[in-house]
Automatic annotation (TrEMBL):
It holds the Pfam family Beta-lactamase. SUPFAM superfamilies: beta-lactamase/transpeptidase-like. It comes from Amycolatopsis xylanica. Residues 24-395 form the Beta-lactamase-related domain. PANTHER family: BETA-LACTAMASE FAMILY PROTEIN (AFU_ORTHOLOGUE AFUA_5G07500) (PTHR43283:SF3), BETA-LACTAMASE-RELATED (PTHR43283). This is CubicO group peptidase, beta-lactamase class C family. The lineage of its organism: Bacteria, Bacillati, Actinomycetota, Actinomycetes, Pseudonocardiales.
């Protein structure tokens, strides 16, 4: 395992060490108040680690502390990895971003779009535009999530077992075929909606590469980058953090072993949208590769122009998610943020009311994990905990405040 520790004086990297200490104080308060089980944060600049902090327990009931090698369910932080995998295949000339996905996934040859009615009597019309590869990468395909609970199409997803997971016994190919039979919530390319699009993208990776998603990830990304402890499940249960949810009313954490079963055994469906377990050290290597334009320690995963394209806002007219997206749950705020090929992209820090830099790209996971890459400041940040859902507290916004207020040079 790559050792995760501060390897430079924070002052040499432009940080005030005392101000960085506010991160510990702030998040320890969450633990002390029973609102988080435990947490770990890592801040890097110029390729050096300026801060590693943690407090609390990875398993409250067993009294096991958060440690540098704790394994976390990263849920939707899987999505950027799947997006990188797809863009690696794009770089090999195996598809164009504008290609209809039905070239490889024929189940999507004739999508239909919900227009009115209920989940029991939906009225649909043919899609006027095929679902294209870039629609999957940008969540503009018209797919959705059952857990949005926003309308009849979401109800159709839930009725078929697609709420926070997938039905037992169905692999990724079967799930892709099931999603293709459900109506889209809008015409492809016309809006933004957080969805199973990245799972479908993972299936596209399987078909185009000829390999199961776990094998492609391992051979193309994890092994070359030295991400030795990232996978769709782990046999090391002791290091896998327990999962918690807030108690209604008090917010105090309570253990949830149903969600905690994720990552403890090989899943039927290899979810490119949310299935991976990882460590802070492993995901740090992934963020450093992105910050360096696709290369780390002499290993090039992507070309720099590809990373730049991924980290650009692809919403038409450079609008933000508030203007183009549906007002539903997502892993980041909408104001001032656009969306690229697998990441949110900060377009307007003033509109977003944040200290972060324009051009920052980021995403998070349902259990309140998060990361961002700030090319302007040559900076990356990561936060790990296991509290579902991620909308419970503004942990990511707090971390941004605390990181950037400590950046003084």
């Amino acid at each position: 395992m790559t050792e995760l520790k501060v390897d430079s004086d924070p002052a040499d990297l432009g940080f005030d060490a005392d101000r960085l200490g506010r991160i510990d104080t702030h998040f320890a308060r969450y633990v002390d108040n029973g609102l988080l089980p435990g947490w770990l944060a890592v801040i890097s600049r110029q390729g050096k680690i300026a801060y590693v902090g943690s407090s609390g327990l990875r398993d409250v009931e067993a009294g096991l502390p958060v440690e540098p090698d704790t394994r976390w369910r990263i849920f939707s932080m899987t999505k950027p990895i799947t997006s990188v995998a797809a863009m690696m295949l794009y770089e090999q000339g195996l598809f164009q971003l504008t290609d209809p996905i039905s070239h490889w996934l024929p189940e999507f040859a004739e999508p239909r779009v919900f227009t009115k009615g209920s989940s029991l009597r939906p009225v649909t019309e043919p899609a006027t535009e095929p679902i294209r590869v870039w629609h999957l990468l940008t969540h503009t395909a018209g797919l959705t999530y059952g857990f949005h609970n926003a309308g009849p199409v979401d109800a159709l997803y839930r009725a078929q077992g697609y709420e926070w997971g997938t039905p037992p016994g169905l692999d990724l190919a079967a799930c892709s075929q099931a999603w293709a039979k459900l109506p889209l919530v809008f015409q492809p390319g016309s809006e933004w909606n957080y969805s199973v699009a990245t799972d479908v993208l993972g299936r596209l990776v399987e078909v185009v590469s000829g390999k199961p998603l776990d094998e492609f990830f391992s051979a193309a990304i994890f092994e070359p980058l030295g991400m030795t402890e990232t996978a769709f499940w782990t046999e090391d249960k002791d290091r896998l953090a327990a999962m918690y949810v807030p108690t209604p009313g008090t917010g105090k954490i309570v253990r949830n072993d149903a969600f905690g079963a994720v990552g403890a055994a090989r899943p039927d469906c290899l979810s490119g949208g949310g299935g991976l377990v990882s460590t802070a050290a492993d995901y740090h290597r992934f963020t450093q590769m992105l910050l360096r334009g696709g290369e780390l320690d002499g290993v090039r995963v992507l070309g720099p122009r590809t990373v730049e394209l991924m980290a650009s806002n692809h919403l038409p007219g450079h609008v933000d998610l508030e203007a183009y997206g549906r007002p539903l749950f997502a892993e980041m705020p909408f104001d001032g943020h656009g969306f690229g090929l697998g990441f949110s992209v900060l377009e307007d820090p003033i509109k977003a009311k944040t200290l972060a830099s324009a051009g920052e790209f980021a995403w998070g996971g349902a259990a309140s994990t998060a990361f961002w890459v700030d090319p302007d400041e040559d900076l990356t940040a990561m936060f790990f905990t296991q509290l579902l859902p991620s909308s419970t507290y503004p942990l990511r916004q707090h971390l941004r405040q605390l990181v950037y207020q400590a950046l003084v040079g």
